[in-house]
Amino acid sequence: MIQDYNLRVYYEDTDAQGVVYYANYLKFFERARTEFLRTSGYKQMQLMQEGMIFVVRRVDMILHSPAKLDDNVTIKTELAKLGKVSFDFKQRAFVNSQLITEASIKCGSLDSKSFKPSALPEYLHSGMKKLLL
């Protein structure tokens, strides 16, 4: 499944040249992943209460062209790989159907006390499995 997340570029997102500051794409992608996972039953507060957190362990991002102030950006998110403890996303950002940025983002599940890898809860793993293409 590929899920779209739409946002508008605000002044606070841009740099001195009037384009989206490169690090802000990571924030945009984070929001889109959170909404994507919500579809599979992910509730961040519930997982934190269960003693589980998710972390990003690797990002590979390519910037093709900039988004600018007032642009409408569509982030397309898909789950590319799912393991018992880790999961990977492919994310692409578009303005007017033109690909502007793409990223491969590798995430992991950790125990919130020990910060050691911990298996995804079964209900969440099952929900995420349904989202694989």
Written overview of the protein:
This protein is an alpha+beta fold. The protein is 22% helix and 41% strand. The model has no long low-confidence stretch (mean pLDDT 94).
How is this structure best summarized?
This protein is α+β, with helices and mostly antiparallel strands.
Write the layout of secondary structure elements.
Layout: E1 2-8, H1 24-38, H2 44-49, E2 52-63, E3 72-82, E4 86-95, E5 98-111, H3 122-129
Antiparallel strand pairs: 1-3, 2-5, 3-4, 4-5
Indicate the structural class. alpha+beta
Q: Count of DSSP helices? A: 3
Would you report the number of β strands? 5
Radius of gyration: 16 Å
The average pLDDT is: 94
Strand content: 35-45%
Main attributes?
five-stranded antiparallel beta sheet; alpha+beta; elongated; 133 residues; 3 helices
